[in-house]
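Dear colleagues,

As part of the handover before I leave the project, I'm documenting each prediction I ran so the next person doesn't have to rerun anything. This entry is a single chain, and its sequence is reproduced below.
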Amino acid sequence: MIPDSFIQELLGRVDIVDIVERYVPLKKSGANFSACCPFHSEKSPSFTVSPSKQFYHCFGCGAHGSAISFLMQHAGIGFIDAVEDLATSVGLTVPQEERHKQAQDKREQNAPLTELMAGAMNYYRDQLKVSPTAVSYLKQRGLTGEIAAKFGLGYAPDGWQNLQKIFSDYNQQGLVDCGLVIVNEQGRRYDRFRDRIMFPIQDQRGNVIGFGGRVLGNDEPKYLNSPETPLFEKGRELYGLPQARKAIRDEDTVLVVEGYMDVVGLAQWGVENVVATLGTAATEANIQKLLKQANRVVFCFDRDSAGDRAAWRAMEVSLAYLTDNKVVEILQMPGNQDPDEFIREHGKEAFVEHARNATRLSEFLLRELVKQASPSTPEGRARLVHLAKPLLQKVGAPVLRVQLTKEIANRAQLSQAEVEAKCELQPLARTRAAPPRSTQRPMARSVEFQLLKLVIRSPALAARLPHGLIDSGLAEGAVLMAIVDAVEHGAQPGSGLAMMMEFFRGTPHESVLSAMVASSLEDDHDPGQDEVEFVATINHLQNSALNREISVLVERARHGLSPDERTRLSALLAKKAAATAANTAALAGNGGFLV
């Protein structure tokens, strides 16, 4: 775990404006900067970056956060990777617990292999430029030099040891470890890729981790991929994701195809939100990564037996990771054409329309189950429920699971409850959790609301929040109490707004805090005035607590007070008189401000 103190130091060193401007052109807009949001498609700017608060917010799609959040969301990387990227940019070294240190050590160990892969990619790209045969092949497939450059396409010339020309030590073990060189049983070394168009496979940081090589003619295998290496795990990677990420965000849709050439060919025609699995059926890791990229995932398969099996597998592994706001669809190409062939013959609009009408996962599941079970007989209907049971149990989206259960029940001529019982499914009503307390009541313009607003504008005030005076039943009051608890336990969420947002990342308080931060982005504030308002607000809370205690004792006085209670009441009344005099003086000096 990375210490909060390091996150605080890191966020104090980096400037969110510089980080965002690496990827998005910003324009000065008053005290802030604005741009069209990089996370959704829009024509007028709704994306705001505040240098004073070190925070960004999009008023269109709601994207928000610190410099760390921006890197995570824009580059599609994890928290640790984002922190390490920022730390490197300002010359800091990330302190990590053992398991994270091991991951860092692994990256450092793999760095020499990454350099070898980058060297090979540059060599293959240079060879493409001087190979008329390879260039002619790509032109026949409708590709331009621009698209070839975008994907880093290259050519591995025919010959057994061409890489010896660029690696002075052709016998080094690293060339074998990263899959560029093979050693046969006789100990002879030779290049893995020969006379093939080369497709570099990149990780989320843009490092080359593997290659796919396609023959120019009809030899077999048609495609040859890098083996599993310390850099490359096929089941976890997607070809073309770095190039497709912006288009995926703009469309909120990712198309998943089966081959490298489909990705590149579709991009050539302007369909850029496309990735490919790497020689394997869709894996759980693929599904999780895809559903983080977009709310709609469309698997595109050939319409043959292999395509049918791949579609079924994609459907099976998707079920557990669906949520009720995520959609997975199956697109099966007409005839014997793959996506690249289809778009070259019919054009972009025809392909986009075809993709727009892809089959919803639920429809595909029901269609295939009915095909397998033939529920026109009692035996077929019983088989339908039997086949549906393991699939329904996997569905992670509760409302979708209920809808599928109803459809299965209709076709099986059973009630929903009967199918749920047979499939050992818990009814939705029993699994619906009550919303957190902090969301039970709408955010009121309360004293707590004003106090939280002041803390957001001047985070250093967090250390002075009072104990026992805040109504935690209000959403903003719950956030304030969480800040108080954090400060008491040595955390420093008040050291800056960006740090505060990072401290509450992933907690129930994040949404409330984010909404208030967004509403304060355009605020101009005077720290001196914030101090005056903060003191006045605390006084108001203290006076309210004082009045409540006086009221309780006055009510008890009707039935008699103990000596201690009488003493306490006298002290409280004196305190109230003194507070009233002080507040009157403060009101006069504060130009009429009243909490």
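The two ends are 42 Å apart (CA to CA). The longest strand covers residues 208-215.

All the best with the project,
I.
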